[in-house]
Structures
1.
Amino acid sequence: MPRAPQARRKMYVLDTNVLIHDPNALLNFEEHDVIIPMTVLEELDSLKSGKQAVAADCRQAIRNIDKLLGDATPGDIEKGVPIVRGKKAEPLGALSILMSTEHQGNHGLPEHLNDNKIINTLAALQARHKSRDIILVSKDINMRLKARGFGVEAQDYHNDMLLDDIDLLPKGYKEFASSFWDTIEKVETIQREGITEHILRREGELAKLTINEFVIDEQGFVGKVSDLSDDKLVIRDLHQHDLMNEEVWGLIPRDIYQAIALNLLLDPDIHLVNLTGSAGSGKTILALAACIEMTVASKLYKRIIATRSTQGLDEDIGFLPGTEAEKMEPWLGAIVDNLEALHEDDENMTASVDYILSKVPLHFKSMNYIRGRSFQHSLIIIDESQNLTPHQIKTIITRAGNGSKVICLGNLAQIDTPYLSALSSGLTYMTERFKSFRHGGHIHLQGVPRSVLAEYAEANL
């Protein structure tokens, strides 16, 4: 690909949060120039120490910058070092470090904030290169607003946003009004070993279906896409009555969406399941019931490892007195609450929960514990996964070894991280990337079965 003319090549100035969000962001601006202000390097330096997820991402970003700059001289760095993406690939674009410059006159923003220093430096750069498009790239919406108010063009980092509208995210099932079979002209049905499969032409609405996606209609038909090719797909008949009456560790699904979620959770051929849905839709209790069933009853897995993407858990658990289990106890609340719900009809609920906690190999670990590990024959539950960046979710999923299953739970309406939105969340990124994965499945749970109060609050508050 030939280099774009100098006038058409843009200069993208990266904010610190972009490099933390995606340490490989430097490589994603094609033939355009990438500029890193000195203030950004200083912020990366101040955040690089520690065991938090953000520190690991900072260190990775710093290593990537160092690798791209290589042995370049200060003069080369000021002009721009060609960005090499592979041994055989021709360099595209250039990387340079921008020294902070005092804004001349009294028209600059106050320099007591790093954001203001970056914006002032960009304004000075813009004054020097009036023929070039200079764009600030930041995940911080307020930083973008300040920059645009000061006359500097600014935009979000879009490279890992695979969707323009969150409503386009797959739900994991396709619902048909009245009968699904009314839309079908030709079908070939095969029965073997108690399994009924329907072979259909992949056309119309069926062309949009992906592997392990479900088909539901109002007449009670439930099927799952078990195989597909360019022109055909195979739908396995799942029988709604069997799905709705399958008891898993005392839990019976309350609706068809919970039933198909349990089907994915219990399927040994599915290695990645992600459940999304509003608060109270049953994500955690379904995952926990299925995990206990598969470790205690069927013994398909050796242990359950639960972790949460919560700010407090990203910190080092420290040197205060107490065992690791005691320090993690506050974060066990969601798990214990759901264990109690599973055993609320027992004669002695507290004794049942204590018994389960003593018998089930359930480990609740900090996110830092997951990094750098390899888990064999384990069930890994990632709660609150909507707060993870795409890079972080990749780091965790790649920890799954042979015979392990990863279960991601999240509510895209409750993102607590300032630089993430429903479109840029790692949960959205993973759902879209894995929709064609033969050993993965996704279900968006409907309704709020937690209580009548929770359902009303979700709809009206």
Note: The two ends are 53 Å apart (CA to CA).
2.
Amino acid sequence: MKDPTSPATSKASGVAWPPIAIPGQGLPREREVRPDVGGTAADAPHGSTRDSRPAEASAPTTASHSAGVPVPDGPEAQEGSGPVGEGSALLDDLRTAIGRYVVLPSDEALTAVTLWVAASHIQPGLQHAPRLAVVGPTKGCGKSRLLDVLYETVHQPMMTVNTSPAVVFRVIGKNPPTLLVDEADTIFGPKAGDKEDLRGLLNAGHQRNRPAWRISGPEHKPTAFPTFAMAALAGIGDLPDTIMDRAIVIRMQKRKPGERITPFRSRYSVPELHAIRDRLADWLVPLRGAVAGMVPKMPVEDRAADTWEPLVIVADLASGHWPARARAACLAMTRSEVVQDEQTTLKTRLLRDIRRVFDQEGSKEALRSQDLLAVLIQDAEAPWAEYGTKGLNAYHLANLLRDFGISPANYRFENGRQAKAYARNQFVDAWARYCPAPAPSVPTAGVPARPTPGRPPAPPSGTLPIGPPSGTAGPRPAR
């Protein structure tokens, strides 16, 4: 909650607030007031669009190439860009301010968040609205604090903890807000229920001109609701794959004992961040028309290029060291997510294969690690015989299962000997979450289902097992 006595939140009129010193930084830089069309920069309310022309109607500007990267040219670009290095210095200040309050997982992640914040101020001129997925394995990783900082720096923020598609439909317009959704795991988690409408809206809003049609009004007319808006979503665990695929993923971690941050206090933090936000608007809002015609050179392709293009555009507008820094962050973080996806897919395959091994072994409560490895490696169609340099071993197996909360333990078997083993009950929760078994279609042949007392028996459904009359009735169901 904001401090009501803060200059940024006080509604008292005629009060001249003195400059507020930032701990360790001295007085914040005084906001530059530059004459603009129809008034001064100070007269323009936050979130207003001084360039009132829609991005689609703005004529693309010509571009001159500097080091292979298109840069806007012409009077409009010269008006907004200012002296060489102004944008670069401003992004440096924003990056420093974000890093003061939040510990990001990497230098590339801090660069990405900085550029994402700046890109929110030119989103009416963009073709794609990248999502920012702020995820972490547990609570206390700084996800909500990062959203606090974003709220004070992005264009026209809309913060929510839980929302519905109907609300989002109605707040997005030609000048859309920047959606900030905290506790997204309560929306898309395993206990959240059906949220396909909201997920479809967030997926469609990644690209311009993907409206959602609904029946609206007393006359029940088909109405197109715009969906295009930038969004940051924070939560525990990964978001749905379709959202992660359209997002710049920030994988937060808990701070180490030696990592220090400045406490976030509205009395001095909010004015500092608002000053940077206003400078971003002064710089970038006049460039929205020029942005629509920019086609930067991207180090990645396909959807990754769509997602990162707005950030690279901001870096090219800033010039200096930012174009190279943005492309380096793009490559590093995109490759990291590719590896993460491969590991996630591999881990899910491992869970399915281990369930198959337990099913084959019957009613055993635990399996020795070596016995489990032997069966996994014998599967010619599985990747385990070629995993690593010499195939899957006990260390690899424990490492792959660690994220699911599964680890080997000493287990005493029937013969009285102890050995490292995996208990079946350790896997039950992970199987249900990541690779649920299909529901059985029919009872086992020869054993009729027992009807519930007081109710008529349900009619048979599904398909009959295929096989010779004297053969087995099909695969044995999971126990």
Note: The chain is about 35% helix and 15% strand.
3.
Amino acid sequence: MIASLALALTCSLHAAEPALPVEAQQRLESLKAGYESFVLKSVTIPYEEGIKALNARVKPALERESAAAAKRKDLDALVRIKADIERTDQGLLLTDAEAPPPESLKNIYAAYKIEAAKLRSTRKLSLTDARQRYDKGLAQVQDELTTAQNVDGALHVKQLRESLANAGDDVAATRGAAAAAPLDGPYTNSLGMKFVPVPGTTVLMCIHETRRGDYASYASASADAGSSWKAVSFESVSLSADDSEPVTMVSWDEAVGFCDWLSKKEGRTYRLPTDEEWSTAVGLAGKEPKAGPPAAKGKAADKVFPWGASLPPPNGSGNYADAAFTAKFPKHFFFQGSSDGFATTAPVMTFQANSQGIHDLGGNVWEWCSDWIDDAKERRVARGGSWYGYEADDALSGNRGGIPPAQRRPYYGFRCVLQSTDTAGKPDAEDALVGRWVFKVGDFAMDKELLSNGSVISGNIPGKWKVTGKLLRIDYSNGAWAEFDLPAKNGRMKGRSNKNEDLTAEKK
């Protein structure tokens, strides 16, 4: 979206900025943060909410016409309408296809086009206002640096202003949109979430667990966020509701939903980390076997903790069950001799970061990962332990929790990773999945087609597909699903269905 473009422009330029006086640097950062916040709240969110409301009004008519087109065997009309229904589900405007809509929908499409144009016009005016305010502040800093004869600094701010002036007004959040610039260094997104590269991977990892404030932005835009996270308690003791606390009481699907929403909003690829990526970030690269399910790797790095090899956790190393915890919950065990000062969750980044600049990879909240814990595919991986953890195994860097994906607890949360090279466009691995496949369960074979827009043609049952880490996930409208392990080898994949059936897939 617009906010992600503005952020990419300002972040890329700030990353290469010359040495500036402290006051000028602080003012630039303040102007940048204010601009991004204004664009998010006054441009992006109202525009997306407008699309959502407009689509909600038109979708019932599309669904009625879809059924009518199917009944009269009008394939062309059905394909057109199905594509637009898919776009309403994704929060996108309807297609502006050259082919005319069905006669019964002409008036509806015409009215829709007028309303969509109004939304775009309002968005453009709001964005122009935001940029004028930002540019005015930048101009003042530029003039002050010029007066102080800081030529390099003044030219840097001038470059910021020129990039701002040349930025496009209409950035569509579509799967076919142009990819954003690759990332090879620290990055801060529109929510203020900070990411750093993880050497040995293709991702940047958020340096903090996803905060309540981050999740609140998602919840304001999507009913899929649930409500369990809003007021959280443990044994009648309320957890802090501060925006800087890690969000808890979210299921695996809700965590994935947050990543999907953020990806669509910013035109980049956010997701949960894989188990291997998480291990690399915590410092276990080369200390665990690559082969086998995560459940088989837990003891490979025995006696390795995020802070070293000794117990109990040294004060300041992380938020575990300590003296403050047992003072609040006297019936529970805790790490003897440990005191971190927090009975439950602590604000993210309270404790010291590791060598890569990442906080809370040990303690605070368990963090959902994308993988299944084992081949049964009934429980997802969680890493890192929590404020409720009081056993040595809980704190091991290599420990894995196997948690049913629908489960929510006051000590379960998540953090995001950001693909460094693939953004709004699909990565090559996903492009290779597009096409016709034959799915087999035993002797029964089914033809499927994965479309580049993320939808699935599967008989009369619509579906959606997406890649999460090393898994291809397909969800059908009737509640059924299938998952396949990636990468596909020689056009073949193995997987499992919601009925616990072994599946194979072969590309035609």
Note: The chain has eleven helices and 19 strands.
4.
Amino acid sequence: MLSIIIAAVPIHGHVTPLLAVARHFAERGDRVRFLTGARFAEVVEATGAEHVPLPAEADFDDRMDFNTVFPERAELKGAKATAHDIEAIFARPGRPHHDAIMTLHAEEPADVLLTDPAFAGGAFLLGHELGQRPPIVVCGVVPPLIVSRDTAPYGTGITPLAGPVGRLRNALLHTVASRTVFARARRMCDELNQEIHGRPLPFSLLDWPRHAEALVQFTVPEFEYPRSDAPANLHFAGPISASGSRAPLPPWWDELDCARRVVHVTQGTIANRDYRQIIAPTLEALADEDLLVIVATGGRPVDTLPPLPSNARAAEFLPYDELLPRTDVFVTNGGYGGVQYALRYGVPIVTSSGKEDKPEVAARVAWSGVGRRINSETPSTAAVGRAVHAVLDQPRYRQAAQHVAQRMAQFPGMPYLASVVDQLAADGARPGGGAAG
């Protein structure tokens, strides 16, 4: 039996995939402590893990409107928006993250720590020797936070450009971003690491998963940029878990068996207050067409939606394992988990591009050929209509999505993540044992 700590920032899209991870290890008999926000206590305990609340200064309710809490954030886009979130939402809680893990490890030594990439405390934990801290597995629930000569800065949503010209472009963009956009966040991280270890953080916060013992990405290489300088600790497990499959069938479910093509649109469970992001323009663009438009509100009451046209149906949650095989196009605002879920079933995608990791997700949708990206957080009705019809009418998008689905079916998923954890625990238990590569 292993002693495992799982740690995640209190954001639904980061916690949910790790609930399945917690359940897997708890069911096989491991001792699992799950450090995350107070609002997730019930769902954590339901997995068989022990919920440990984050310190108050690191906890928040992800259902709040961040643009209200941080008014300056509303006007930011791309890398500037990413930099703001890194500083205000992720880097600042890094010290209480670090302290909470060190306290848990001192109370009961952990064999392995699993974190999401946004758990900034992981970066500061790396300043301790193994033994003082557990080996760290970063669970890739968002596009990889890895600085590379082959990719543009994280958050820009810029797709790769091959060859020397692309590398020169990336080098210039990284230099500009580090000196301007990310400069404040870097200074904050240096100060925090100085407090803990007496020296600045020796790497960028956006590159910290490179230095963990393992980075296990919850997708397949076909949906991720190739990197000639990828770290040896990078693994692809394929999809780890599904979410939402237990939702009840709505009363209109039988209509899905009609001959009409189905377009499913959602804004996930967090960024779903402003339906202009993708739901409203999709309803308007496809109104009265010979399509069935299915809306999931992600938990918000259905009556908060704009008026539904005659060809639209809605529910708060839907059973995705039954819906997606019937879906012709998945329309989203770019949540990583939802996109991976759709691709498991070979469903092509239309995505807008907003804040957080969404520009990076949208860029990968376009780069991999599995769908169309609209470069706007609140796209126009016309733009959504053009993108949906392009994906419906051009077989190449579905073919690319089905290819990714076939590759996903070949990857072991949870058993692979468990093998990485078990190897790290075994190496750490040996005299002189170190991290697995």
Note: The first strand starts at residue 3 and ends at 7.
